[in-house]
Specification:
By secondary structure, the protein is α/β, with parallel strands linked by helices. About 35% of the residues lie in helices and about 15% in strands. The strands form four sheets. It has an eight-stranded parallel β-sheet. Strands 1-2-3 form a three-stranded antiparallel β-sheet. Strands 4-14 form a two-stranded antiparallel sheet. β7, α8 and β8 form a beta-alpha-beta unit.
């Protein structure tokens, strides 16, 4: 059942290229800590090669061994085909048609979840490849930039296993981000629930104390978002705490409930004193349709490495615009995905911020070492429009070789 897809927009004939190979490199930082809830400690780098020597790079935010298997596993029937085999010999400029081919050809293997996450890396690599072949940045192929700069937010990093350590680490991270020049920040406040930092079990009232401390640290003029990482089970319990957070001028509250609990989301969105944001885990436009139409969330957060790639993320952004919702993309991987996120943001005029951590704010080794993106934080707290072809990211292949485990 074909439906709308996104392919590169450009004038003139495309170079004659055929895909000759799809490589999957599973990377793992040697100092990874399995007790962390951070997917930036590993990655899969997907390389698409062509007969003309042009290559494209992509990654996804999912278990890299599983993603590699999704791409390379042999097919056994017409609705359970091998993604890699479907791409060999294909025209890389037909991104939309290839996305549909992969989606239909693997339909009995997924339609959501890991299959779509793996397709995200392939899609990202195709956009990078086409941009390089045409000498144009990806945002130009997506229809053209609607702005010359975008405002990023810094994700503040906690530490410690006691309340005071946790609170003080977030405040110190906020001070550092402010000194670097960020005009917007998102603080994790998760000392309970499924994501509880360091196994902590603090009361909900103490979460309010942390928020108050961070807001006091950064002052009233910096935009502040809060991520509580699925802390509460229902809207009523959440509201008992956040109903009083209006005084902290919170731009949005991210993932306060479980992502599948869309009916409770709607109750929360109706009564909370700040907009509700969700979407980091979702795959395809169909899950976002439910999120916005049933869950009524005000801020949609597609991740280019999970939703199905840059093209599928663009479709989600268009859906949000039609519904009067904001876009603030999620991204917690390396410079490859961060660059893909930025190009999406520059063609999305209702994108308020992007998630961005420069190396000096990164704990994870792969974030610091794997790739150098073109993006630069200016003194006014914005990132200017990228100009390099493709995603504009340079991968350090010595790092790939050093950390490759499969």
């Amino acid at each position: 059942m074909p439906f709308a897809t996104v392919s590169p927009q450009f004038s003139g004939p495309a170079p004659r290229l055929k895909i000759t190979d799809v490589e999957c490199h599973v990377l793992l930082a040697p100092d990874y800590d399995a007790s962390f809830t951070s997917s930036a400690q590993d990655s899969i780098v997907v390389v698409i090669r062509t007969d003309g020597g042009v290559t494209g790079i992509g990654e996804c935010d999912a278990n890299p061994w599983m993603a590699k298997t999704c791409i390379e596993a042999p097919g056994t029937h017409t609705m359970g085909l091998c993604i890699k085999e479907m791409l060999i010999g294909a025209d890389p400029f037909q991104i939309g048609e290839l996305w549909m081919k992969m989606y239909l050809g693997t339909a009995m293997n997924g339609r959501r979840g890991m299959i779509i996450h793996a397709m995200s890396a392939v899609d990202m690599a195709l956009w990078d490849l086409c941009g390089k072949a045409l000498g144009k940045p990806v945002h130009a192929l997506l229809g053209g930039a609607t702005r010359q700069s975008i405002t990023p937010y810094a994700s503040l990093q906690p530490a410690g296993h006691r309340f005071e350590e946790y609170r003080d680490a977030l405040c110190a991270s906020a001070e550092k981000a402010k000194a670097i020049g960020f005009k917007a920040m998102k603080t994790e406040i998760t000392m309970n629930g499924p994501y509880a930092h360091g196994g902590m079990r603090e009361s909900y009232e103490r979460h309010t104390e942390v928020l108050a401390a961070v807001r006091k640290t950064i002052g009233p003029d910096i935009t502040l978002m809060v991520d509580v990482q699925y802390l509460w089970e229902d809207a009523a319990t959440c509201l008992q705490t956040v109903k009083d957070w209006a005084e902290f001028n919170v731009f949005f509250l991210e993932t306060p409930l479980w992502s599948d609990n869309v009916r409770e989301m709607a109750k929360l969105a109706e009564r909370a004193p700040m907009p509700i944001a969700f979407g980091e885990w979702l795959a395809t436009r169909f899950e976002f349709e439910e999120l916005m139409d049933v869950g009524k969330v005000q801020v949609a957060q597609p991740d280019v490495g999970r939703v199905g790639g840059i093209g599928e993320a663009k479709i989600v952004c268009d859906m949000a615009k039609a519904r009067g919702r904001l876009i603030v993309p999620h991204c917690w991987k390396t410079g490859i995905s961060i660059s893909g996120t930025a190009h999406l943001a520059f063609v999305t005029d209702h994108c308020a911020f992007i998630e961005y951590l420069p190396p000096q704010l990164c704990h994870e080794r792969l974030r610091r070492e794997l790739a150098q993106e073109e993006l630069v934080l200016l003194p006014d707290g914005t990132i200017p429009l990228p100009q390099k072809p493709g995603l504009g990211v340079e991968v350090d292949w010595d790092v790939v070789k050093r950390y490759r485990v499969a």
